[in-house]
Amino acid sequence: MASLAYSNLLLSLFLTISLLHSSSVARKLTESDQQLQVFKYHKGPLLTGKISVNLIWYGKFKPSQRAIISDFITSLSSSPKSPSSSSSQPSVATWWKATEKYYHLINTKNNRSPNLALSLGTQILDENYSLGKSLTTDQILKLASKGAQKNAINIVLTSADVTVDEFCSSRCGTHGSSAGARINGKRYRLAYIWVALVAPNNDVGLDGMVINMASLLAGTATNPFGNGYFQGPKEAPLEAASACTGVYGKGAYPGYAGNLLVDPTTGASYNANGVNGRKYLVPALVDPKTSACSTLV
């Protein structure tokens, strides 16, 4: 079994998200698929250590839009209120804590605890479209490299008027690994992720960004290099959240997200509380012990 001690492993993970409506980034499991397939650990490394999440904003974003995303990242490790307060639960932090199950399963023999801590890092604004409004995947990686390249996840967020080469013509999301930057004379291995989404019909793009960012962060943590946790073929893996596409609450079925909470003020559906009074919709995650989708509500 591969070791989970990766203190010398460079983890610069490139996550690219457009200000667009939610779209599936992988195959969706049907109920029969879930019964026939099991979630497996393929003996590769998981994301570990203290990881900063850096945001690279490409294009025009309002400060209020940027705050929604940055508050979500902060919410991954911060409870909205005191744990004793019922209004703080379910929370984004509780949702993210479910990923610890993946680490526990492979750490049991060594009696070691999961060691992954995400925190909001730097934010970089590129409001003048330095590379134009039509980007290639190589340019996306160039933008991602503006963030820290060691122990970091660099998230490139592109506004709705930016297109990406092969934009959903052959694929809408993928991630892999390649040789990273050379630091102190040593070249490290890095993982990268990018996703392209379908443009929204109204101002629901930020909700879609959060959902897809949450899904990709879960996949990045548990399958950063393509040989961690997933089910199905390696060429089209179903990961921690993408295996549960479309499932957000109990009772979900194709076309129905499940039984969700409703904000009495806005009427919007949600399933997780965040910092600063935020309410988010996050995807179900696969329970690695049962291979079933697990929801907060």
UniProtKB/TrEMBL annotation:
Q: Does the keyword Secreted apply?
A: yes
Show which residues constitute the signal peptide.
1-26
Keyword list, A-Z: Apoplast, Secreted, Signal
Compartment(s): Secreted, Extracellular space, Apoplast
- Its main subcellular localisation, reduced to a broad class, is secreted
What cellular component GO annotations does this protein have?
Answer: apoplast
- The entry's protein name is Uncharacterized protein
User: Which organism is the protein's source?
Assistant: Crotalaria pallida (Smooth rattlebox)
